[in-house]
Amino acid sequence: MVSHGHQAAPLLLLAIFFNIYFALPIFAELPNFHYEPKSDQPLNFLVIGDWGRRGLFNQSLVAAEMGKIGDKLDIDFVVSTGDNFYDDGLTGVHDPAFVESFSKVYTARSLHRPWFSVLGNHDYRGDVLAQLSPALQKIDRRWFCLRSYALSAEYADFFFLDTSPFVDHYFKDWDHKYDWRGLSSRKTYLTNLLKDFEEALKKSTANWKIVVGHHPIRSIGRHGDTPELIEQIVPLLKANDVHMYMNGHDHCLEHISSRDGSVQYLTSGAGSKAWRGDIKSSNDEHVKFFFDGQGFMSVQITQTTAEVVFYDVHGDIRHQFELIKPQQLHASV
């Protein structure tokens, strides 16, 4: 059983420890990793976002229920959809918020699996390089965060996308400071990222394609749709048969289906503070489910099916559905 601790675990050693390894660059320039799931079993994982508040705002309660479901499903890993540390990311690799909001909260044995994370806008308000540093893995070996990367897990390919640089508002927001170190010019960065992302999608032959980003593409929560992603990302999702786009940012749980049913937009940003009653009525897609409380999501994937379940802070099922190849939505509760 994996446990966190203070042992040295550089990125490559962490990868080996968790049955993850660097693959040949079949996914263009995106860093590519391979995860070897348990044989003859579904690929099981949890999805959580917008959580890092030192256990407050019911973060600890959500974590406890995640531990129970994680144990029941014998999960392979956890996906974090960003805004990992509030309010302003980490101040550095030795910021106690990392331990207080992560290691000391997600203590269940079942959650001692790799945490594949993306950056959110609040993470960019702190020392963004700290969250990307392998030094954090010396504190808690579960942590795995890059700007954008690909993960292959047998019949499912995951594409983790750095969405904050797409959003125009952050480059006009004088109320907050964002740490854009490590990026070239915004235009160059996005041009290269879109090119690499598209190439990665095209080369994938997996049964299931899943994209993870922080910002919602479709949402009826507080922030609503993200126009920049609708314009630049949606055409790539549809052209390359992406089945699910998972995100956080809006502090709620949502399931929205594109009108043609080709992409399921799944929001899991309810890891701690929720926004009760904050809902928009305008959206031109099919809203299957919206919950304005805390919770998380589980996903079970086989070669032919994908079952998604949304849980609230008490571990009660609020919504579930199943996709069956080819992309048919069979059940919705």
Please describe the biggest sheet, giving its number of strands, its sense, and whether it closes into a barrel.
9 strands, mixed
The main sheet orders its strands as: 1-2-7-8-9-10-12-11-13
Regions with pLDDT < 50 over 5+ consecutive residues? Answer: 1-10, 22-28, 327-333
Number of continuous helical runs: 8
Task: Calculate the terminal CA-CA distance, rounded to whole Å.
Answer: 35 Å
Q: Shape, please?
A: globular
Strand content: 25-35%
Sheet/helix structural class: alpha/beta
What's the gyration radius in Å?
Answer: 18 Å
Order of helices and strands: HEEEHEHEHHEEEHEHHEEEEEEEE
Give the tally of β-strands.
17
Quick check: average pLDDT?
90
Helix % is 10-25%
Tell me what the structure shows.
The strands form 2 sheets. The protein has a 9-stranded mixed beta sheet with strand order 1-2-7-8-9-10-12-11-13. An 8-stranded mixed beta sheet has the order 6-5-4-3-14-15-16-17, with helices on one face. The model is unreliable at 1-10, 22-28 and 327-333 (pLDDT under 50). With 333 residues, it is an alpha/beta fold. Strand 11 and strand 12 form a beta hairpin. Helices cover 20% and strands 26% of the residues. The chain contains 8 helices and 17 strands. The two termini are 35 Å apart.
